[in-house]
C-alpha cells in the first residue's frame, strides 16, 4: 500500500511528465555551473522532470517498491527530508564532477582556438567526440592535406565551439539520485530482506542488490562511453548522501522530527 509522501511524489512526477516538453527541460533541467542557462532553482525542479517513459517508469517503480517501508519506519516528514536531501546531494556531486570534467574540456577548446591545426583537431575529436569520427573522417583527411586552408580552419573551429556548447548546455533531469538514495537506505535498514528480481526472476538479499548497484555505478561513472547519457555520478551522489544521513541518524538517540 502506498504511503502519503510516496503517493504524492509519484503523482507530482507523473503530472510533470505529462506536461514536460523540450523547452521545459531546457529551462528547468539542471545545467552545468559553466552554462549561462544554470539557475539555482534547477536543483529542485530537475528532480521532477524525466527524459522519457522508460526513465520515469524505472524511477517510479523504485520509489513504489522501496519508499513505503522507509516512510512507515521514519514517518512522512523524515522520509520527505531524506528524499530531498539525497536528490540535492546527488545534484551537488554531479555538478562538482561535471565542473571538473568540463574545465578540462574547456582547456582543450581554448588550446585549439589558439592554435587550430589538423593534428589538434583530430586529438579533440578523438577525446571528446569519437562517435562523430566516421562522419568527420573525410573532412579530417582533407584538412590534413591542406592545413593552412582557412575554410577548413573555420569549419573545425565551428565544430569545436558547437561541441563545447552542447556539452555545457545539456541538462540533467530525473529523480534517479533520490531513488538511488532510497535504495541505499532500504539496503542499510533491511539488508537481509529478499527481493525478487525481474530479470532473471531470482530472489536476492537487499544488501547484495545495493552492493551491485553501487559497484556498477562507480564503474560506469569512471569508464562510461561517450554514448552513455546516464548521470552515473548523480546516482552515486544519491547513494553516498543516503549512507551519510542514515548512519548519522543511526548514531542519534532521538528522532529529529
From TrEMBL:
The chain crosses the membrane at residues 47-67, 79-100, 178-199, 230-250. It comes from the Bacteria. GO terms for biological process: proteolysis. The keyword Protein biosynthesis does not apply. The keyword Coiled coil does not apply. This is Rhomboid family intramembrane serine protease. It holds the Pfam family Rhomboid. One of its GO terms (cellular component) is membrane. Residues 39-100, 171-246 form the Peptidase S54 rhomboid domain. Belongs to the peptidase S54 family. PANTHER family: PRESENILIN-ASSOCIATED RHOMBOID-LIKE PROTEIN, MITOCHONDRIAL (PTHR43731:SF14), RHOMBOID PROTEASE (PTHR43731). One of its GO terms (molecular function) is serine-type endopeptidase activity. It is found in: Membrane. InterPro entries: Peptidase_S54_rhomboid_dom, Rhomboid-like_sf, Rhomboid_protease_S54.
